[in-house]
Write a structure and sequence with these properties.
single chain, alpha+beta, Arc Repressor Mutant, subunit A, 3-stranded antiparallel sheet, two-stranded antiparallel ribbon, 8 helices
Length: 181
C-alpha cells in the first residue's frame, strides 16, 4: 500500500510505503494515541486552574454517564471507600460542582447531583479542545481534511459497531470467554 501525504506547510509530498496491515495499524495507533507532554501539561493546567483534581473529573464523569446516584454507589463506581467519596464530594460541593440531596423515597439515602457549574466543566473543555483543533485544521489542505473526515467517519462507525456488539452480549458470556493475551 502506498500512502501519499501532502504537507501544507512545505507544499511538498511525503511518500511512505506500508507493506502490511499490522504496520499500518501500528503507525495509526502511534499517531492517534500520542499525547505530547506539552499538551498534557496544558490540559492539567486547565484542570488545576479550575481546582479540579482527577478524582473530581472522575466523579463528574460517572455522574454524567450514569446520572445522579447515592453516595455509596458513587464510592463503588470510583472504587474508593465511602469515607473517601464523602471527602471528595465535600470538596466538590464547596467548589459548587455538585450538590447532595436526600432521596425522595428514602430520606436516609443521600444522592449526588451535578450543579450547573459541574455540568459545564466538560462543555468548557470541549470548547477549548474545539478551538485548538480548529487551529490545527487550518493548517491542512482541503484534500487532507477530506481524507481525514473519511477516516474519522470510518473510525467512529467501527467504534459504534463494536459498542453495539458488546451491548448485545450477555454479561455471563463474558466470564466464559478466554482472555486474549
Amino acid at each position: 500500500m502506498r500512502i501519499t501525504i501532502m504537507n501544507s506547510k512545505t507544499s511538498g509530498t511525503t511518500t511512505g510505503t506500508t507493506t502490511d496491515r499490522s504496520t499500518l495499524e501500528r503507525e495509526l495507533l502511534d499517531e492517534m494515541t500520542s499525547w505530547p507532554s506539552r499538551d498534557r501539561g496544558g490540559a492539567l493546567k486547565a484542570w488545576h486552574r479550575h481546582s479540579l483534581s482527577l478524582a473530581h473529573l472522575n466523579v463528574l464523569t460517572v455522574i454524567e454517564r450514569l446520572g445522579p446516584m447515592p453516595m455509596r454507589r458513587l464510592a463503588e463506581e470510583m472504587d474508593v471507600s465511602d469515607a473517601s467519596a464523602t471527602g471528595i464530594v465535600d470538596r466538590m460541593e464547596k467548589r459548587g460542582l455538585v450538590e447532595r440531596r436526600h432521596a425522595t423515597d428514602d430520606r436516609r439515602v443521600v444522592m449526588v447531583y451535578p450543579t450547573e457549574a459541574g455540568r459545564s466543566v466538560f462543555s468548557g473543555m470541549a470548547v477549548q479542545r474545539r478551538e485548538t483543533l480548529t487551529q490545527v485544521l487550518a493548517e491542512l489542505t482541503a484534500a487532507e481534511m477530506s481524507s481525514l473526515l473519511v477516516g474519522m467517519k470510518a473510525l467512529h462507525a467501527s467504534r459504534d459497531r463494536l459498542l453495539s456488539a458488546a451491548q448485545s452480549l450477555d454479561p455471563a458470556d463474558l466470564n466464559e470467554r478466554p482472555a486474549n493475551n
